[in-house]
Structures are given as structure tokens and as C-alpha cells.
UniProtKB/TrEMBL annotation:
GO terms for molecular function: ATP binding. Residues 5-264 form the ABC transporter domain. Pfam families: ABC_tran (PF00005). Gene3D superfamilies: P-loop containing nucleotide triphosphate hydrolases. It comes from Streptomyces gilvifuscus. The keyword Transport applies. Coiled coil: none annotated. It comes from the Bacteria. PROSITE patterns: ABC_TRANSPORTER_1, ABC_TRANSPORTER_2. Keywords: ATP-binding, Nucleotide-binding, Transport. CDD domains: ABC_Pro_Gly_Betaine. This is Glycine betaine/L-proline ABC transporter ATP-binding protein. Belongs to the ABC transporter superfamily.
Length: 350
């Protein structure tokens, strides 16, 4: 069973008099003002909740504070202010020893460059976290073997790391994290060093694993497309602050400010949007009376954009969107679809 993670008004300030700096930040000071005194406000007032089974993505440019935020979540860095709660426990209130225990058993981390031990087999590498926990050899080899199989590496147990491709090595890293049965997975740019195709493969694998494992996952990336593919919810960070938290669709269709909007310009909207974001909901009520002889093709609010295009191409009238009770909730004229593929500016009655 995995558990809920909560970050409450987290701050991390590097430099002199961090507490004073937090007070200034609370009164509205920004990063630049503090930098003048040689203080770095790495994370400013970050709050969010991640429910079990969710992938929470933190997205932002390099230097925006993502890694610092992640290191506070597993207690590697002590917050200057605020709280981290996991599975009902306030991590910020634990002693160093208690925190090591929690880190060894409940939290796993996967880094960008996963450092495998070159002189240990793939199996031993995957079992490393369990060895640290003091799990007996037979059991840790069994569990590491299962984790490797989950990550598509069955048959490679006895190989050496240098016999594996970069993508496969990263899978060993993921297997190591999964083998410990930790409820919380923290992934810092875990796929960023991989080639695009392998990266996509890893994203698919993670999504597939998550369907059965239902861990609590915080995934960090600077890549918005990756964020949108993986994230149940996404937090966008800028200069230490979370400027928006929402679903991929929220961020694409309802950006909180110009900064977020500029970020989303290059996103492949067709991969993210569903009928609910695209449909016109300003209805007269008779739109479903399309005059088709027999029942024509319709969509539901969660029909993916690409499918919507395919349906639209087969119809000579707007696509009708019905909810689970087959009530009319919206319509999608072809022009609206085309508009959303562009910059998202769609006239009210396109
Ligand atoms: N140990 C540290 N001491 C001083 N400044 C740091 C330290 N760690 C990170 N920073 C600064 O905090 C800011 C956020 O860094 P980081 O969390 O690594 O961002 P990201 O992971 O988004 O690239 C940066 O300005 C970085 O230079
Ligand atoms: Mg980082």
C-alpha cells in the first residue's frame, strides 16, 4: 500500500540568516532581492498533496528549484520552514536516525545518471537497496529478480552493467527503486539523459507499472511533453515558486500566467487534449438533432483529441459529445479542432 505525501509551505534558503530570508519572502520579496545579499531562495512557499497511485510531476527550467524541493521530500535536505508529511508522519520532526529508517524502507529515489556498481551483477545492483535494509540474500535476490522482470530485464540478472545499453541501465535503476517496496518514488530527471525513443519507452513502462503498483510518485522534469504524458497533476516552478498546479489540460487550456502560456506553446496539443477541453458548451439544446437517419457517431468528454478528429472527418456536422447518461454536454465543430491545434485561440462559436 502506498500513502499520501503532503508538502506544506516549504521553503529552502541557502546562505546566511535563512530564517530572516523566509520572513522577507513571506512578506513578498522575490529571489532577486535576496540574491543581492548573497542568499539563494531555492524553494519558496511550496505546497501540494500527492495521493497514493498518483504521478505528481514538478516541471521547470534548470535552476527553478526542482531538485531542492525533491531533496526536502525525503529529508536529504532540511527545510528552512514548512512541513513534509508522508503516510501520516511529519518527516520534518524526525531525528536523523528515524529519517534514515524512513528513507531506507519507505522512499526510493531514481536519479538522472544512475550510478550502477560496475563490478556487481545486474541482479546485485538491483538488490542493493535491499542489502542496505539487511534483507537476507535469498530473499533479496528473489525480490530483485521480480523487479528486474517488471522492468523488462528478465534474463539479464547475471550480466554486468557495461553489457547493458544506457536505457537498460536506467531500467536497473528503476528496478532497484521498485525492489525495496518503497511506497514513495522520487524521480529526478530520471529519463532526461536517454535518447528520445528509449525515453518514450521508459515513460510507457513507468505508466504501465504504475497501473498495477499504484505508488506515490513525484517525477521531476524540465520537459513539458514528458510532464504532460506522465503527470496526473503537474506543478510548474519558476524562480523557486510553484506558479501553477493542475492537470495537463488545465495547464494547456487555462495557463495561470503568460509564463506558463509561453511554456506550453510548443506542446503537441493533440496528445493532451480531450473532448472536454475542446467542446463548445454554450448550447441551445437541439444540437443532438443532427438529422442523421440512423444514430451517428458521438464522443464522450474523455475522447482523445486524435479520435475526435477521426470522428469529425467521418461526419458532415459537428461531433456531438454525450456524458455517461447520454445527455448532450457539448459539440465540436471541425473548425474548433483546427483552432486548438494552433495557438488555442478559438472564437466562442467557431
Ligand atoms: N547546496 C546549495 N547551496 C547553494 N545554492 C544551492 C544549493 N543547491 C541548489 N542551490 C541553488 O538553488 C537554486 C535551485 O537549484 P535546484 O534545486 O538544483 O534547481 P533545478 O533542480 O530546478 O535545476 C539554484 O539557484 C541553485 O544554484
Ligand atoms: Mg535538478
Amino acid at each position: 500500500m502506498s500513502a499520501r505525501l503532503e508538502a506544506e509551505q516549504l521553503y529552502k534558503v541557502f546562505g546566511r540568516r535563512p530564517d530572516q530570508a523566509v520572513e522577507r519572502l513571506r512578506r513578498g520579496a522575490d529571489r532577486e532581492e535576496l540574491r543581492a545579499d548573497g542568499t539563494t531562495a531555492a524553494v519558496i512557499d511550496a505546497s501540494f498533496t500527492v495521493d497514493p497511485g498518483q504521478i505528481f510531476v514538478v516541471m521547470g527550467l534548470s535552476g527553478s528549484g526542482k531538485s531542492t524541493l525533491l531533496r526536502m521530500l525525503n529529508g536529504l535536505l532540511e527545510p528552512t520552514a514548512g512541513h513534509v508529511r508522508f503516510d501520516g508522519q511529519d518527516l520534518t520532526a524526525l531525528s536523523a536516525r528515524e529519517l534514515r529508517e524512513v528513507r531506507a524502507h519507505k522512499i526510493s529515489m531514481v536519479f538522472q545518471h544512475f550510478a550502477l556498481f560496475p563490478h556487481r551483477s545486474v541482479l546485485d545492483n538491483a538488490a542493493y537497496g535491499l542489502a542496505v535494509q539487511g534483507v537476507p540474500r535469498a530473499e533479496r535476490e528473489r525480490r530483485a529478480g521480480e523487479a528486474l522482470a517488471l522492468c523488462g530485464l528478465a534474463g539479464w540478472e547475471k550480466s554486468w552493467p557495461d553489457e547493458l545499453s544506457g536505457g537498460m541501465q536506467q531500467r536497473v535503476g528503476l528496478a532497484r527503486a521498485l525492489a525495496t517496496d518503497a511506497d514513495l518514488l522520487l524521480m529526478d530527471e530520471s529519463f532526461s539523459a536517454l535518447d528520445p525513443l528509449i525515453r518514450r519507452d521508459m515513460q510507457d513502462q513507468l505508466l504501465q507499472l504504475q497501473r498495477t503498483l499504484k505508488k506515490t510518485i513525484v517525477f521531476i522534469t524540465h520537459d513539458l511533453n514528458e510532464a504532460m504524458r506522465l503527470g496526473d497533476r503537474i506543478a510548474v516552478m519558476r524562480d523557486g515558486r510553484i506558479v501553477q498546479t493542475g492537470t495537463a489540460e488545465d495547464i494547456l487550456v487555462r495557463p495561470a500566467d503568460d509564463y506558463v502560456a509561453s511554456f506550453t506553446k510548443d506542446v503537441d496539443r493533440s496528445r493532451v487534449l480531450t473532448a472536454s477541453a475542446v467542446m463548445d458548451t454554450d448550447l441551445r439544446g437541439d444540437e443532438a438533432d443532427c438529422g442523421c437517419e440512423s444514430g451517428c457517431e458521438t464522443a464522450t468528454p474523455d475522447t482523445p483529441f486524435t479520435e475526435l478528429c477521426a470522428i469529425s472527418a467521418r461526419l458532415s456536422h459537428p461531433v456531438i459529445v454525450l456524458d455517461d447518461d447520454r445527455r448532450l454536454v457539448g459539440v465540436v465543430p471541425t473548425r474548433r479542432l483546427v483552432g486548438f491545434l494552433g495557438d488555442g485561440e478559438v472564437p466562442a462559436h467557431a
